[in-house]
Amino acid sequence: MEKSYAAIFRSQKAACLFPETSETIDVMTKTDAVSPHELADFLEECSGWDQRGSEISRTFEFQTFLEAIDFVQAVAGVAEEAGHHPDISVHYNKVTLSLMTHSKGCLTAADFEVARRLNELVS
What we know:
By secondary structure, the protein is an alpha+beta fold. The chain has helices at 5-17, 36-45, 65-82, 109-120; strands at 50-52, 55-61, 87-91, 94-99.
C-alpha cells in the first residue's frame, strides 16, 4: 500500500521538527474556567488575541502560502507538546487560530498558555 504525500511528509519532516515527548505543560492540568478579570488581563498582555464568543482567536498573516503552512506545522508542534490543540483555518497567507477547552466548553488557563506559546513562534 502506497503512502500518501501527507503521510510521508508527516513521518519524515514533522517527526524531525517536533519529536514526541512525554512532557506536558503544567498549566494544562488547571481546567477551571477563567474569570472575566483573568480574560481581560490576558487580552491586554497577549498581543493580537481577541475574544470571539467562548473562544480566543488570532489571525497571523504571512508573505506567502508556504510561510503560512510552515507556521501551521510549528503550531502543530506546540499543540502536540501541550496536549492542547487550536482550531486552525488557513486562507492563502492568513492563518486563524482559535482556542477553547472543548472538554470544559469554556476558556481555561490552558488556552492562555498555548496562546502565549503560539505568539512566541512569530516574535
